[in-house]
Here is the input.
Amino acid sequence: MNCKIENVNGHIEVYDMSNNFLFSADTEYEARCDIAKLIA
Here is the structure.
């Protein structure tokens, strides 16, 4: 899954490549773990 991870005001937001919001996370590590779960 291709996605974009952005740090926004101290939390992480994840978007798909069309800039649709997918989810937020507290840390980049948490976001990457959640992405891994989505593609598993």
The chain has one domain: 3-39.
